[in-house]
Structures are given as C-alpha cells and as structure tokens.
Write a structure and sequence with these properties.
Distance between the termini: 38 Å
Helix content: 25-40%
CATH superfamily: DD-peptidase/beta-lactamase superfamily
CATH class: Alpha Beta
Order of helices and strands: HHEHEEEEHHHHHEEEHEHHEEEEH
Number of helices: 12
Number of strands: 13
Number of domains: 1
Structural class: alpha+beta
Length: 392
C-alpha cells in the first residue's frame, strides 16, 4: 500500500538508558505483555486462538527488532472489531503499561478523519468539492489559478508541505494556538504554489489545514466541533481528542525517539495545535478500530460517498497516483486496500482496511521513525489467512 510519511529531524533532549540494557528489558516486558494481553485489551469470543497467537508473535518480533517502548493494536473482520491489546510501556519513567485504550498521536491518519468529515458535508449538499476554496475559506488569498477542496484532499492543489532547513517554523512548532485553522493558514498563505492546481501530486499537511477551513465555512461550526459531532460520535470514538499539550488527557502516552546510538530518549517537543486537520489528533487502537468499523458499515457516510472518497485522483501530468481523497490506496495483500500512515515526534501509526473482506488493522506506536505500515501489513496478512485445520 502506498503510505505517506515524512521522517522529521529530531534533536535528542533526554537520555533515558543505554541501548543494550533497554533491549533486554523490552524483550522481558514484551513477553509479559503478550501473556497479559487479555487484561490490556478486549478479546472477542469469535477470535481464532491460532490467529491471536500469530498476531502476538508478530508484534513481539517487531518490538524486539525495533526496541519499541509501546505498541497498541486492533484487528477486525466481517465489519466488526475482533481483538485489541496493548504491549510494552506507555510511559517508561512511570512504568505505565500500554493498553488498547492508550492515546497516541495519530499524525497523518488525522487526514483520513478530516476527509471523512469533508465528504459527509458534500453528501449533505453543504460542500461543493469543486468550487473555489474561497467560497468556504475567504481568509486564504486567491492564487493565479483557483484551488478546490477536491484538489486539496488529493494533494494536487499545489500547496507546499513543510519547509526544509532552518526557516521551517512548523515541523517543530512550540507555540500553542487557540484558533488552530487560521494559525495554520498564516504559516503559508502568502507562499507561492509549488505547482499549478490539478497538475501534480505534492503531499501537503498544510493543504489539509485548508480542508479544515472549508469544513468550517460549509458547516458553520468550528472544525473540531463538527468532526466530534458528525464523525467521532457516530463511530463511537469517545476518547479521540486534539493533541492539546495544556489539557489533562487521561491515558495519553509519552512520546519517544532514538538517538544515534539507538538509546530511547524523550522525543523532541511539538505543539501540533496549528495542524489538527492534517496531523493533530490523539486516539487509541480501540477508537480507531471503531472508525474502521463505522466506515465499513456505512455509519458515517454512504457507500457511494465512501467509494468516491477511496477513488484516486488523476493529476494532469499523467503520473501514476494511488492517493484518493484523504486516503491512500494499494494492493499490498493481494487485493484492494486503503488506509493511511502517520509519523511525527514520538509516534508512528498506520490504519489499513481491506474492503472486500471487511477487515481492518490499527497499529499505534509511541516511537518515531519506525515502520508501522510494515507491521500493519503483516498483521493484516495473518487476519486474512484461513486458520489451519486442527491437528488430527
């Protein structure tokens, strides 16, 4: 599956331990976590015990290979969540175990939530995806060529991504903003487009800030309020919230990175309040599994709207493009799949859905720059495999 991630550059802020000792401790912790997963997650009576053992073994191998502090996962089949669990630690300093309810930074998975909200407004007749953006977001100055919400959702609007180099004030932003949409727009509103809208694919978290602005203009509500009421609540995502560093948020994980020696450190500081639509939500494995279930069962948007959301766009330059409207598409498991990955300070995440099998996988990790997608695909292959016949 095509997965979009931006490996950021971090500086080391706190050394917690030495790598060899940490790896040994993690291996022990993983074994304990695997045996205790029934307490840290939910297990449906329908889950196949053989599959559960395979899933746990794959997670243990991944954590050992990557010295991962904590991982939370959820899997589902037939349009329902089957199993979820946490492994390792949500907080190394306080020895808090990770569970299926631990809240992680979603990173760019936030884009799929935002896209679902935008497509719901389109379904309600409130948002014309092809109208000039300024119809809904007049605070963004018009460019030489009109930009549409559809182009923003598919990353073909010509909006830049993060800047590289010392003038990048966004990647490691430390300011907190009470008006997240306008604050995000102010970072890039006067910058030139990187391509003529509709012509080329250029991934852009900033572009999704403009989608959030369009949602506000079309709905007449604040972006966060509309998403809560129309996407999160119908899906049963009761613990998903913006990553507000000032708020007391129960079950929020700590965020980790690695230094050059491989030692685990606290991740570089980030205030993501300026980019909530494209990378600023917190959620748990259980909540994200409910999001997948709601999408598969047409509880948020209709099947026709979902199909539109999962259809890749065609940039005018003719280059292959597997990205749809806020969702990536692929064929990593031998059939059509959709999903998204996320990567930012202290987090690596992935959600994967195989619509034909009505199956979903969620992987949330509290360590940056590890391949959550690889683990998600491995787990999905286990989910899709028929169980071996019982031994005679």
């Amino acid at each position: 599956m095509l997965r979009i991630r931006r490996p950021p550059t971090f500086r080391v802020v706190l050394r917690i331990t030495h790598a060899p000792l940490l790896v040994a401790c993690l291996l022990l912790f993983i074994l304990v976590s695997a045996s205790a997963s029934a307490q840290s997650g939910q297990i449906s009576p329908q889950i196949n015990p053989q599959k559960r053992a395979q899933l746990e073994a794959a997670i243990a191998r991944f954590m050992a290979a990557n010295s991962t502090p904590g991982v939370s996962v959820a899997v589902g089949e037939n349009g329902a969540e089957e199993w979820s669990a946490g492994f390792g630690s949500a907080d190394l300093e306080s020895a808090v175990p990770a569970t299926a309810h631990t809240l992680y930074r979603l990173g760019s998975i936030s884009k799929s939530i935002t896209a679902t909200a935008a497509l719901l407004l389109r379904q309600q007749g409130k948002l014309d995806l092809d109208a000039p953006l300024q119809k809904y977001c007049p605070s963004f100055p018009a460019k030489d060529t009109p930009i549409s919400t559809r182009e923003l959702l598919g990353h073909i609007a010509g909006i830049r991504h993060y800047k590289d180099g010392p003038d990048d004030l966004e990647t490691g932003n430390t300011k907190h903003f009470l008006n997240p949409i306008q604050a995000g727009i102010d970072f890039f509103k006067n910058d030139p487009l990187v391509a003529k809208p509709g012509t080329e694919y250029h991934y852009s978290t900033q572009g999704f800030t403009l989608v959030g602005c369009a949602i506000e203009g079309a709905s007449g509500e604040q972006y966060v309020d509309y998403v809560h009421q129309n996407v999160l609540a119908p899906a049963g995502m009761s613990h998903t919230v913006p990553d507000d560093r000032f708020a007391i948020i129960p079950r929020r994980t700590r965020f980790y990175s690695k230094d050059k020696s491989g030692a685990i450190t606290n991740a570089d500081f980030l205030d993501s309040s300026y980019k909530i639509p494209g990378g600023g939500w917190l959620s748990s494995a259980d909540d994200m599994a409910q999001f997948e279930v709601a999408i598969l069962n047409d509880r948020i948007v209709t099947r026709a709207t979902r199909d539109l959301m999962w259809t890749p766009l065609k940039p005018a330059d003719g280059k292959p493009d597997r990205y749809a409207l806020g969702w990536a598409t692929g064929n990593e498991v031998g059939m059509f799949d959709v999903g998204h990955s996320g990567s930012q300070q202290g987090t690596s995440t992935d959600i994967t859905i195989v619509p034909e099998r009505r199956a979903g996988v969620v992987v949330l990790i509290n360590l940056d720059n590890v391949d959550a997608t690889a683990l998600a695909i491995e787990l999905m292959k286990i989910v899709l495999e028929p169980p071996a016949p019982p031994a005679k």
